[in-house]
Amino acid sequence: MDRGHTQKTKATLRPSHQDGQAGFTALQLLVVVAVVGIISAFSLFQIRSSREALALQNSVRQLASYIEKARLDAVRRHDTSGVAFTSSTSYNVLMDFDGSGTPYTRSISLEQGVQLPAGSPLPSISFNWRGRTSACTNTFAFQNASGAQSWVDVSDAGDVTVNSDVDVLPSVSYATVSTTAGIAPVTVTSGTGTHNNTLDCDSSTSGASGPPVTGTGSGGCNLTINPSSVSIKKGGGSSGSVVVSANTAGTVVTSAPTNITVSPASQAISAGGTVTFSLTSNNRTRGTFAANFGTSCTTVTTLVKVTN
């Protein structure tokens, strides 16, 4: 075979890098890896958020179910039953679980990452033999690791709702019934008011403020907050204020659950001076929450009751 022909054939068989099929460059690979990484991170974030939201709703609805069962048990046995939180992540249910007629306590834990808002009082509820409670409205509020919140309401009549209101009816108007369609005049009813089916509960009552409370620290320093409890309406419907006083100079730093806004977040305070903070609810979550005010000396807490 001709040597020139052989060399030509080998040249023909060599892969060409000038036909647009040279493969990925290092820069292109880096771009692809970056895009895949961003998409993966976003997907993982969405999955985690979905799991946290599901855990929150599962915990809330499980509690609502146990409260309803406890109420029915109290009516059936003509005795008392109830639910009481023992920590920020667990509660006890007292009722007759097996139908033997004898109540006993069972401990239930919230799902991972779900808890009562930090510093909140441990709520409880008890039903009498008629399935009623002693309080106007009992609220159990929870939040997950992302700060999302949900709550269970129980009215004094034992009605249980999730993320809703049970003691305030919507405003409605009544029209006078016409007597032209064969209706006897004595059956005609007129009115413009709204009947409230919770007459023993006044939804306009905001609750009395608590007395001042003082915290002390080393060296004789102290911090006083007034009032120690305040009531505000949900969703910014109203605001409350507290006054903090100290016998030493410093900076008062605040902390509160995600549904409570404390303004300003911090303030400098002089020895023997006072500073005022405003508290507002920024969503529909109701219940009693803790707002903390602290210096390097000590920390004091005011309980914020969020109502309708």
Strand-helix topology:
Elements: H1 3-13, H2 26-77, E1 81-87, E2 90-95, E3 104-109, E4 124-127, E5 137-143, E6 149-155, E7 160-162, E8 213-216, E9 222-226, E10 229-233, E11 239-246, E12 250-255, E13 260-263, E14 266-269, E15 274-281, E16 287-294, E17 299-307
Parallel strand pairs: 10-17
Antiparallel strand pairs: 1-2, 1-4, 2-3, 5-6, 6-7, 8-9, 9-11, 11-15, 12-14, 12-16, 13-15, 16-17
Class based on secondary structure composition and strand pairing: alpha+beta
Low-confidence stretches: 192-200, 202-206
Number of strands: 17
CATH hierarchy class name of the domain at 46-162 = Alpha Beta
**Straight-line distance between termini:** 100 Å
Strand content: 25-35%
Radius of gyration: 32 Å
Explained architecture:
A 5-stranded antiparallel sheet has the order 8-9-11-15-13, with no helix packed on it. Strands 10-17-16-12-14 form a 5-stranded mixed sheet, with no helix packed on it. Among the domains are: 46-162, minor pseudopilin epsh domain (minor pseudopilin epsh fold, 3-Layer(bab) Sandwich), CATH 3.55.40.10; 213-307, Sandwich (Immunoglobulin-like), CATH 2.60.40. Mean pLDDT is 81; it is low at 192-200 and 202-206. Helices cover 20% and strands 33% of the residues. The chain has helices spanning 3-13, 26-77; strands at 81-87, 90-95, 104-109, 124-127, 137-143, 149-155, 160-162, 213-216, 222-226, 229-233, 239-246, 250-255, 260-263, 266-269, 274-281, 287-294, 299-307. The chain is built from 2 helices and 17 strands. The protein starts with a helix and ends with a strand.
